[in-house]
């Protein structure tokens, strides 16, 4: 029983550590996004709901992992109970995320617009490069062409002179080894690309959230087992102390009588 208690307690501590680490990473990414964007004043004015939610979720993971880690190492049942309560709140948040994703296609526009406004320029450039788009609605989102990042552009090779538009060779002259490539700007905005990406990959996103959900449930069950084993061990120790004291008391009186 004692060995099982130690194993469960160490597993709880390990899972709590990864929970704390996840919260730390989320908070760090949010702070980096805020520090490298022009949204700090809006953060104070309360105009960044996506950032608030992400920071709150990361802070909840951070605090929850810290409670579980400390409770497991210090064998403190109160901290472990708080760890279970916060884990339950995280599970509710993840269930809410699953519901949001399931109805994402119908209500995606406002969420994508708000998230795009709260991201920094580096994040915009990564999205534009990976999804082959430019701006939220298109290149017209930028004030001037000088503000457009290189991630908005792509190069389309020109056809060699001996190849027609239909791809057929119109002369036997060999094509040049290096022919010019025209630099063009993507005219498609990232809103539609992001909507399509989330909709096409929603099963993958749901699988990831489902894995996190199972992780939290397993953590809660192991923590409950650790608390139960600790309580049972204390009850057994108390019973042994009581029984030892009673035997000692009876032996003392018996010896006196004799």
UniProtKB/TrEMBL annotation:
Keywords: Disulfide bond, Membrane, Transmembrane, Transmembrane helix. It comes from the Eukaryota. Disulfide bonds join 134-152. The keyword Transmembrane applies. Pfam families: Tetraspanin (PF00335). It is found in: Membrane. Signal peptide: none annotated. Its main location: membrane. Belongs to the tetraspanin (TM4SF) family. GO terms for cellular component: plasma membrane. It is a multi-pass membrane protein. The chain crosses the membrane at residues 12-35, 50-70, 82-106, 203-229. This is Tetraspanin. InterPro entries: Tetraspanin/Peripherin, Tetraspanin_animals, Tetraspanin_EC2_sf.
């Amino acid at each position: 029983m004692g060995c099982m208690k130690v194993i469960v307690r160490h597993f709880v501590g390990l899972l709590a550590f990864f929970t704390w680490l996840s919260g730390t990473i989320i908070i760090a990414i949010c702070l980096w996004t805020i520090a490298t964007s022009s949204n700090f004043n809006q953060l104070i004015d309360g105009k960044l709901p996506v950032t608030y939610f992400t920071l709150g979720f990361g802070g909840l993971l951070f605090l929850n992992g810290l409670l579980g880690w400390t409770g497991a190492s210090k064998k403190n049942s109160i901290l472990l109970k708080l760890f279970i309560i916060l884990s339950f709140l995280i599970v509710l948040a993840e269930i809410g995320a699953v519901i949001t994703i399931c109805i994402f296609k119908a209500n995606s526009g406002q969420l994508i617009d708000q998230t795009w406004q709260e991201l920094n320029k580096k994040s915009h450039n990564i999205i534009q490069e990976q999804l082959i788009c430019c701006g939220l609605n298109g290149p017209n989102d930028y004030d001037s062409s000088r503000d457009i990042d290189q991630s908005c552009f792509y190069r389309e090779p020109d056809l060699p002179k001996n190849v027609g538009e239909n791809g057929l060779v119109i002369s036997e002259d060999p094509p040049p080894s290096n022919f010019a490539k025209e630099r063009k700007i993507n005219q498609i905005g990232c809103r539609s690309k992001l909507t399509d990406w989330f909709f096409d990959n929603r099963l993958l996103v749901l699988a990831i959230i489902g894995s996190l959900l199972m992780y939290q449930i397993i953590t809660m069950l192991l923590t409950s087992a650790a608390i139960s084993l600790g309580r049972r061990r204390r009850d057994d120790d108390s019973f042994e102390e009581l029984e030892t004291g009673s035997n000692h008391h009876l032996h003392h009186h018996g010896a006196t009588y004799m």
